[in-house]
Design goal:
single chain, 67 residues, mainly alpha, 2 helices, 0% strand
């Protein structure tokens, strides 16, 4: 679990540093790289928030059943 958390945290923090390099290397330009990064963040957000909601539901269900 610790390796997974480190990998996700490192990858997310590394991405903004690479935006300038990606824009310079590609023919798409800065706007295309910005839109791609925004789509990446938009896709990542529900993935990070979904487990929080699931854990709340599971804990609430266990408390209702007396476990």
């Amino acid at each position: 679990m610790a390796v997974r958390l480190f990998t996700v945290t490192f990858a997310v923090n590394l991405q903004p540093l690479l935006c300038d390099a990606c824009a310079a290397e590609s023919d798409a330009g800065v706007m295309a790289v910005t839109v791609a990064f925004a789509a990446y963040v938009r896709g990542l957000t529900p993935t990070l928030l979904l487990p929080c909601g699931l854990s709340d539901l599971i804990c609430a269900g266990l408390q209702l059943h007396g476990h």
